[in-house]
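Entry:
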Amino acid sequence: MQNAEVLLFPPAASRTHEVCGAGACVFSFALAAQLDGHTMWIRETWDTTQINPAGFADFIEPAALTICNTKNQPETLAVAEEALRSGAVSLVVMSLNKPLGLTEGRRLQLAARDGMSTGLAVIPEGMGSNAAETRWRCTPVFTPKDSTLQRWELIKNKSGTLGVWHVRWDTASRRLTMVSPARK
């Protein structure tokens, strides 16, 4: 794996991407902040995890997020496809718990292209679609002095460049900064 000097973030617009790991929500909200538009977060109703406005207000205004609950993954994908194609939102985040087939993944890519929106699938570790443009693994780095440090690893990239970066969200500027890896 190659370490690049420049963080490849935000990922390509008008495409769909994937993220996994304990830091996936930070990645999702950092991407929403960088795209600076309205975000739709789609998830199944069985997922009782709450998305707390106080938790993401450092990234985006709570009014810039619409949460949509669906009954199952096919409905999640249908809503995501329509939202991407509409162009009404800059980012569509979908929480998925089952692998995507190539057909479903390709439909999302076409919808993102047509609507000039970005799609992001939050997936379990080890799962992923061949149709995704990029796949990221994001994990918090725990240190006694800094609770905001994250390790972002680009583990799939159709453009070819992979890498690992240590990043921190700067609340004041609403920007991502690259930092040196934490020392143990």
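The chain has a mean pLDDT of 91.
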